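Narrative of accomplishments. A recurring question from our advisory board has been how the design workflow behaves on a single, concrete structure rather than in aggregate. To address it, we present the structure tokens for one chain from the evaluation set, followed by the sequence designed for it. No filtering or post-editing was applied between the two.
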């Protein structure tokens, strides 16, 4: 290799390094901007929801109450989207930190089931929670982020299951002490093979027809995947594409020494 070729290779390597650093800086700036923008949107949205509740508590005729309920439902839907954008932006910017505290695991799982029971009952689905006796009562972790992952997975299962059941289960991991294995099984239509490889990628719900036919595969599952990674675990899905799906994830939730 001649001196000129060596210099050209070094120059190319330097240019690639600069381009990589520029792209990473741009991505961080984008994430920080979205995080700031989402926060600024969320504040007035909470104000709209609060004032709507105040007006709903006053005397209204049937048409006025119906219109306000539609306003509230729309605002709540928009707030979910804003919160997802904020969470993803904070994760990508490295600003989301887990809050490690002791909490009662069974209570958290039961609250998840109760929160989604109304939606399941409306579709005549059995919503089941399996917690074997060997699961510890108290664990150490971020209860809010664990609940966020579980609500997303169980909520998706309820939304995309028209008959049968949705089962949330938890078990200890035999090969990793302090790690729990969660699963959410449904009897829905299943997920086709071509979707399983991208289901946890951000913004894959851009294909609207696929999303409407199967399950939401946008920010919710992406955030769940990132949160599971932060909790020292992994997430995956099993489905034959025809008769139901099972979402699995593991999370490091150790038993406190004081327990």
């Amino acid at each position: 290799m001649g001196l000129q070729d060596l210099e050209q290779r070094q120059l190319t390597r330097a240019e690639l390094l600069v381009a990589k650093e520029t792209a990473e800086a741009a991505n961080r700036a984008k994430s920080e901007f979205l995080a700031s923008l989402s926060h600024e949107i969320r504040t007035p949205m909470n104000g709209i929801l609060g004032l709507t509740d105040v007006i709903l508590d006053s005397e209204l005729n049937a048409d006025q109450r119906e219109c306000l309920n539609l306003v509230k439902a729309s605002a709540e839907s928009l707030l979910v989207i804003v919160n997802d954008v904020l969470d993803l932006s904070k994760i990508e910017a490295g600003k989301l930190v887990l809050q490690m505290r002791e909490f009662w695991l069974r209570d958290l799982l039961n609250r998840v089931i109760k929160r989604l029971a109304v939606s399941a009952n409306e579709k005549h689905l059995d919503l089941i929670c399996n917690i074997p006796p060997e699961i510890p009562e108290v664990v150490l972790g971020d209860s809010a982020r664990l609940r966020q992952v579980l609500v997303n997975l169980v909520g998706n299962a309820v939304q995309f299951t028209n008959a049968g059941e949705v089962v949330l289960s938890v078990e200890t991991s035999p090969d990793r002490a302090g790690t729990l294995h969660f699963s959410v099984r449904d009897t829905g239509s299943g997920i086709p093979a071509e979707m399983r490889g991208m289901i946890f990628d951000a913004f894959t719900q851009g294909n609207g027809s696929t999303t409407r036919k199967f399950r939401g595969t946008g920010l919710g599952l992406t955030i769940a995947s990132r949160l599971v990674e932060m909790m020292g675990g992994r997430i995956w899905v099993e489905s034959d594409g025809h008769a139901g799906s099972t979402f699995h994830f593991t999370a490091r939730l150790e038993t406190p020494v004081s327990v």
